[in-house]
Every structure is written in structure tokens, then in C-alpha cells.
Amino acid sequence: MSTPGISILDGKYMVTMDLFPQQSKEFNQIYKFYEYLKEGRFTTTKCKDCGSEPFPPRVMCPDCYSTNVEWIDWPTIGTVIDVTEEAVGVPLGFGKPPLVHALVDLDGKKTFFVRIINCKTGELKSGDKVKLAVFDVDPVPQEFGREVINIPRVFYAFEPVK
Amino acid sequence: MDRNVCVIAGGMSKWGVRDGSQRDFFQEAAKACYDDNPQLNPKEIDGLLVASAYTERTSYQTHLAPLVAEYVGIQPKNICARVELLCASGSSAIILAFAMIKSGQADIVMVAGGEKLYTPQKWEIFYSELASVDHDWDGGQGLGLPPPVFAMVAKQHMLKYGTKKEHLGVVSVKNRRNSAKNPKAQFQTPVTMEEVMSGRMIVPPLTLYDCCPITDGAACIVLAAEEMAKDMTDKPLVYIRGTAQASVNNMSANMPNWTTWEALKIAAQQAYSKSKVDPKEVNVAMTHDCFTISEIIEMEDLGFCKKGEGGFFVADGQNDFGGQVPTNTDGGLLGCGHPFGGTGIRQGIEVTRQLRGDAIQQVPNATIGLTHNLSGFIAAHTVLIYGREVA
Ligand SMILES: [Zn+2]
After folding, report:
1. How far apart are CA B238 and CA B9, in angstroms?
2. Which of A103, B113, B212, B260 is the most interior residue, by most CB within 10 Å?
3. Residue A56 to chain B, least CA–CA distance (Å)
4. Which whole-number Å values give the CA distances from B315 to B174, B268, B279, in the listed order?
5. pLDDT, tens digit, for every residue of A5-39?
6. Is the interface score ipTM higher than 0.95?
7. CATH architecture assignment, domain B5-121+215-238
8. Domain boundaries, given as residue ranges, for chain B
9. Which of A59, A101, A126 to mutate to probe the B interface, most B CBs <10 Å?
10. Is domain B145-211+241-387 given the CATH code 3.40.47.10 in the classification?
């Protein structure tokens, strides 16, 4: 790897240029979301005191402010409300146009605006079913003392149910 | 102490794809601001609030306010700090300056906002915008750049209320016609409805002229306590009557409604109430036309027309000169461009000119003006109401 204009950064990892979140427990207390994601599960935290199920998952309940929370599974299949297809201006890292997004009703839990992968232009329409799609993203070279260990990472989108 | 607060000067740099650095633009904006009111002695300014969202990423500069103070030749003694709320950074800083003067914590405060967004390689600002939304969740879905979000808003609004692509076009044509007369605006040429309707597809139904551009530039405004303002300008005094800012969600999954912006309705209600103004009394407005559909929804949620009728309201000329509430008379974001931290200040300057009676394109006898910004994933809304008289 080379970094034109800044030769000293050759081969260095820059968190400030990373598309995806840190997923190791040293850098993220909700790291279990990503561990479950690797198992194909879509999860969030449920408050054991008031029963609230916020998303994104978190360390404190936003409704009663309890920190007594547990991980629960959410549906991995949702229904498309509407679709957008970005023809121009797709940011670096999100493939060739079109970049497809859909407003997805996740079985009444929340309405997610998410990226749809494995989907051709014009393929997806209102009422269609989509399912969770988990994929690998670049690992993070993280320092442990003098050692550098690559932390594997995943991220999610949704894809048409065929 | 509870004092009245006035705008006593305002000016902006040329906006657009600019040669120069962030600090260059702040100096240009300050110069234009000082030139707007030669009676203002900049050495008497006792506070500075700087609005800039991407200063760390595209100019690699934090602790920006003291730097700007040094460059624009002032030595604040009551406040010198930066304010950030992305697209609403400028109007947020005006609210805070207003509150400081009103409460007696400062007397004369400059609010300066701006950005250098174009980098030597253009991909970097587009990529950096992944920081504009909840980076860990919406950023990872490729939603840093807003066109897909507003395309979904437009689709849903069209479906629910019968808003047409031609209605969006009316907003582009109006705002580009206005910016063509504003020498500081990014776009100096008008566009026709035909050009707009055949514009390059970005995210259906949004085409090129539905979207505001990326912009370099800065703007400055100076606020002062009324008793001092009276001695510092011969121009009519323009007061800030009332302000509000509301947020009910941040991540996309927590949007309560895509076609009615709840936080905007809350902010508008608060601002109207504090300002003792009814929506029908607003003579001129600068609303956040980051996309054409935004201006249409803003007409509704600001109470200028009935819910769902925004498209028909703009198509009927009701937010153009001669209509109920001329909107974005200087060109708005679609015409002037949008250097995030500068926009709320640009709006404040244009409303001030309209109320003073010296705007480039004057709304006759305007006495009450409104500015509005949305920011992030339509996650916060900011409303300020200005007037020739106090509330
Ligand atoms: Zn709870």
C-alpha cells in the first residue's frame, strides 16, 4: 500500500478513514452484536427492567436509564416498503452503481433504511421480502502491546428472498 | 438581565468551488461583514462563535475559533469557541450568540461559519460524509451522502400526497433564478423547467437540479445588544425575536415519519410561540432546500400551507415573489451552495437585508423573516425568527 503525498503513512491503518465500526471488545462494548451477526443473527439489547427494545443496541436503556440489559434476537426477514436506486454519487466502498437502498419493515420492530445487495436494477419492489445478508469486511490491525493482531470484521445489508 | 438582540452587520465570501483555504474564506467573509457596517469597530467585538462541521476532516484543524479570531483581527474576551451541528452549525451559533447577549454574558458577538470542503482529490469529502450520519449504523449502509434519503422522502411524499416531479422542478427554477442575481452564489446561471426535467438522474426521482452542491465558502454576522446597536448602525435595526431547535431521533431506524418532520413541527411551534408570530405573518423565509423536496415539506411543516399541499403551494407561486411567503430569495442552498457551517449565517444575512430593505431582490415591506435548517439524517431542525420589532 502506498499513500501519495504522505510517505510516512505507508502501510498504516487509519481509523479515521474506516467505513465500518470497530468491533473488538477493546473498542466497542456492544461487540456482541457483531459476534451474533457472524452467526447470522440480528440482535439488539432489551431492557430487563422496563422491557424496552431500542435499536441500535446500547449499554443503557434510553427509556428507564437502567443498565440491566440483555441481548435478544430480532427478525432477519422484512418487507420492502419502497426502494431507491442511486445511479450517481455512490461513495467509495459501496460497489458499482446502482447502490440500492430500501425502507424495510422488520416485522413491526422498526422501519430500517438499509442497503440491498445481490439485487439488480429494477428487481426489488414494494411488498417484496428481504433477508439479512452478512458479509466480511476488512479486518482491523489492532495493537496488543508490541504485537499487531488482525481483528476480523463483518457487516450487514439485506438481500432479496428468492 | 434580559436584553433585546439585533443584527448589526453581515457579509459572506464568494461561495462555490473556490481557490483557497478555509482560513482565507473566513477573512473574506469578515472583510465583507466589516464593509457592510463601517461604523462597527471590530476591536469592540467581545465574543466569537465559529460554525464549522468538517474542519477536522477537510482542513485538519480543530480549536478553530481562536485561529479565526486571530485571522479576522479580533480579541474576544467573553466567548471564543466553535459550534457544530453539521448543516445547522451556523444557525446554532446564532442562537447561542443571541442567548449570551440576551442574558448579558456578552455584548457584541461575531458568528462566523464556513468550510473548505473540496480537497485536492474530490473523493475525500464524499467519503468523509459517512461521518454525517450515525457512522457505525447508517454510515455502514452507504448513507453518508444524502441523495438516497431524500429520494425516499420524495417517493413517499409523492405517493401519499400526489406531489409531482414538476413541483420539485419549480423549486429548482425559482432558486436558481434567484442565485443568478446574487454575485456571491455558487450558481450564476438560471435553469429552465425543460433543463431541470431532463437533468441527469442521481437517485430517482431526484435529478441533478434537485440536489444542492458541495461548496467552499464562509459567512459572518455580528449581533449586539440593542442599546449598543443603536449607536453602531444607521440602518434599520433587525431583531432576533425567537429561536428553537429540536431533535427527536438520529439513526434512520428511529425516524418517526418520513413525510412529516416531527422535529421541525416542534421547533417551528416553539419559535413561533417565543416570537409571538403566526406562520401567516412571516413575510420572507430562508428554508433548508438541500433538496427540492425539502423546501416543499418545509412549507407544510412550518405551517405556511396545509399538510400535503406543499407541492401545489410552490407550483402556485405562493413561495415566490408576489406570493404568500417568498422563500430563498438569495438562491437558497440549491443556488448559493452549502458550505455546512456557513449556511445558517447566509440565511441570517439575507433575512437581515430583507428586513432592512436593502436586499438585492427585495420583498416589499418585509417586517418578519424566518430561517430554517435541517441537519444530519433529517435529525435536527433549527428555526429562527427575525423582525423589525421585538417580540
Ligand atoms: Zn428500560
Report:
1. 10
2. B113
3. 8
4. 10, 23, 19
5. 999 998 899 999 999 999 999 999 999 999 999 99
6. yes
7. 3-Layer(aba) Sandwich (3.40)
8. 5-121+215-238, 145-211+241-387
9. A101
10. yes
